Batch of 2 targets.
Target 1
Amino acid sequence: MLDSRQLAGETLIPVGTGADAEDVGVKQFSFRELTYQRFMRHPTAKWALLGLGILIVACYGAPLWHLVFPNYIQAPDQFSLLDAGTGPSLRHLMGTDSYNGHDIFSLVLYGGRFSIFIGIGSMVVAVIIGVSWGATAGYFGHALDAVLMRVTDVFLTVPALLLVPLAARVFGEASPWKIALIFGLLSWPSISRIVRSSFLSLREMQFAEAARALGVPNRRIIFRHLLPNAVGPIVVAFTLGIANNIVLEAFVSFLGFGIQPPNYSWGSTLAGAQGVLVAGNWWWITFPGLAVVVTVLCINFIGDGLRDALDPKIIR
Amino acid sequence: MVGFIGRRLLQSIPTLILISLLLFFGMQAVPGGPLSAFAFRPGMSQAARNAIIHQWGLDQPIYVQYLQWVKSMLTGTWQFSFFMHRPVREVILQRLPATIILMVTAYLIQQVIALPAGIIAALKRYSFFDQAVTFFSYVGYSMPTFWLGLMLLLIFAVFIPILPVAGIINVRVAGAPFLTADYNAWFLQHPITGIIDILTHIVLPATTIAIVGIAGDSRFMRSSMLDAIHQDYVRTARAKGLSERVVVLKHALRNALLPVITNIAIELPLLFSGAVVTEAIFSWPGMGQLFFQALEAFDYPLLMGILSVSAVLIVLFNLLADVAYAYIDPRISYA
């Protein structure tokens, strides 16, 4: 099995060349298999996926680690003022913060849950809105397209960086769900643009015309005939959007407009750290930020791999 | 050309109208209304409250308030800031120069490093240098700007204290805050000290913005240059026996720069966001810092002013990108 795949890696044959391929005895691959193979051939994407998996398990398992290693992993409501502001040691792997004596390592683990949740949750919202919006605009075109895209322009013109903290402040008392929703409501426009532009060309294709001629209802053409063909760019934008929103969330929470204690995210773990920067306790700033960098790096690599894997034009 | 710019400007008018509607009515959704900022003063009597409501025109119908706001944005003072007790326009215009200085400096650093790095990486593909550039661009691209700023602060202002921690000037040297009348008089008397003072303060924030930008731009330049090198006309140039220098600089590079220059213009809004973030970290007295101060105080007219100005700036940036594109690439017509 493995051998045949490796062999086929050199001589990929598009699905549907039918009998010829059977004769030569080369296995045919479905789109899903081809995508999988291309993704695994990307030099870093598979390692990034592994790394992200480990991070997710580490973060979401935090309450469990707390039970298993109560001396090393503390719940966010456990802290001792006596330990405040100590550097990394065996007891506190990433040191403690300077005000309350929270163990930074524990906060990074616990906080990762919300950071990752907000990244993914917001993009799920963004994809749902962006796909419906962009598909409608691209499929129906004309006046509807013009109106819908004007609205998209508006959202793209006011920097999300300013709107997000504003919205978070306005809708006060930020729960992770609320923040994810706000981020999602502000990051759909770029997705809708991508979907619209692929729909503009897809709807002119013969298979779409055929479906229309057969009397297939519009909704079904959009979701069953066109959308699967536009899935590649959407998945890539979804992935990269997660990375974007994790960074944005960190910034907003760092400034105190997003997630706030007693809830922790990577950003809110850093809140207050700048005030004591001059004291030189580097660990407080360094480690939560590194968590963001590593996560975002993994997600960007995965996005890269997906781009290569899902683009049917690249056949290597 | 003029017609093209005029048409594009006309096209942006509906966008700007929609933005103003979004901003204004979005602000009305604030729980407790725009007056909620005053709710922090518990000792206030109902009469005082009503006086304020009347003073700010908040007892009028909502569409009248909207029209008044638009009118003041177009012709007047952009309304009064709740907390600074000064016209919003005055406050913003005083902060705008610092943001622009920061953006321009960061931009210069970014391009001076990113373009050569991308070109060399493309010419020496798969070399150690190329790998290093690629690695750096991935890491730089994944770094939160604000965290990078904090790390640079930690290293160059705390551990090796050679650069100032915050601000745009040393108030103790100048004797007055940036761009006040006293400062301007001092600056005119001591231009060299003044410029050096600003330069030492700008190094860290500008580098912070530039590093993230270099990551993206060097990669873009590299791929554009790689595209150009493998074109037929480059092979022709080599076949003609032109020197490698001429082939690279005159034939490949000039074509490779086309998409790069467009990309540079497209990136301006990103640069603005970067400035907003770094200003918050380095207490840089620009629009970004002002925005977060206004947000803290819920200074509603000021917030609207800043958002409107940044929206207009971004519309202009986009226009600039289109014009640059049409101007540089002879294959694009203005039509």
Target 2
Amino acid sequence: MKYICLGYIEPNKLETQPEAVTHAMVDECFTYDDELRKNGHFAGGHALQGPQSAATLRFENGKVVVTDGPYAETKEQLGGILILEARDFNHAIELMSKHPGVKAGPFEIRPAADLSEMIQESERRRSDNDA
Amino acid sequence: MSESVIQQVREHLDVLYRKESGRIRATLIRLLGDFDLAEDAVHDAFAAALEKWPRDGMPENPRAWLISTGRFKAIDTLRRRARFDASQEKIAEEIEARQGHEEGGKDESIEDDRLKLVFTCCHPALAPEGRVALTLREVCGLTTEEIARAFLTTAPTLAQRIVRAKTKIREARIPYQVPSAEELPERLAAVLQVVYLVFNEGYLASSGASLIRADLSGEAIRLGRLLVASLPEPEVLGLLALMLLQESRRTARTSAAGELILLEHQDRSLWNREQITEGIALVEKALISRRFGSYTLQAAIAAVHAEASTAASTDWPQIVALYTALAQAAPSPVVELNRAIAVAMSEGPEAGLALVDALLTRGELNAYHLAHSARADLCRRLGRKSEARSSYERALELTQLEPERRFLKKRLQELE
């Protein structure tokens, strides 16, 4: 089963702490990512640029409004996502508890939602409409 | 088929239901991976037994029979549902394919299933109030209405908590397993917390007219025994000991009129000796392990009280020492308050009052009624009447529990 791990971190934390600390942390994290890959647990993921680079889109009064910045203003911001392949929730928790990134900021783990039924129903509706 | 045979089977099933349905349910939950399906399966299995056993005779291993019948009934249910919802067929196949049902009747694996269920119900990823409700529902077998009554909430609210927790277990795929040795301390702490919370809700009743709700304390002790039987870790022993030792004072703790009686004024002949003996033996076993924690230390304190024939003959220096250890193991201002009270008993009210005042100055206990009533009590003993009065009044403002309020009012009157 897939679990999406959202890694949160204080913006600029990596830039403001001593370089040696950042280097050690980043090296540790990449080493662990490699281990997850090797064991078939790393199903994808990406680091994100800082929240200052974000734009948020909202639908308001019948049109899309674009605003500067992230959706939620929180102390820690989403810093990256990792898609984990794990047996069950405990396994996902166990794998992410060992990820050195947890020392830099919290991880939120969410099980992936299975939309296959919803997609099938939608396809049925759409083909009915076509007919 | 004679009436008497049916009657016999019925009685036997009654006993089995009372003694075994919790275990059978736990195993079926693991086998079926679904709480509600398992609940129905338990009932279907007992109904089938009522029909078949008078005719075919009692099976050799009734529990194994009930588990395997329940499992087949659940697969039937899923197959019936599959006519309307194709995805159910896949689940039925998965359950059929799953191994392990052959071992369903063995004692060892059954105890193991209950333990797995406890760990699932007390999973830290579930909301705390959901953990308590689910444990009482699924492990103790209490009805939603019973749990709602015990926690002074409505059945729909409680049902919602249970549904949310069950949904999360299913959808996030929280497994039924005993955690690995590495995770055990933390996960076990979450389980013990739930058990102690249930106990305290029964023993201290955070609000309402009655001071003690015995049924909940009893359930917590049953849970404690279940844990001790399958996972005799020192803190598990410590918690059961603590609950037994507190429970031993139940009858002495309130007067016939429902008034609270403090430890020092309790009629110690009312203490339950059997529970005390069992509790003390458990504490000693936990202490020997040298891997004990805060539950064992609290139980050890309760044991020292239990061993004293009067409040005055209590080994107060030992209680102070145990509180000092407890304050290190689990730092908390409430523990420090209790230590201060023990110091007052051991070295005199003046020494205790100095500690209580220092604690109140720090601010964390300002809204805690027992801190003010303890201060009031020490001032009273020192003859500082007006200080005692204002502290009793402050305590009175801070508690909603009726018997405690009556107790404080009585103390205020006695000051006049």
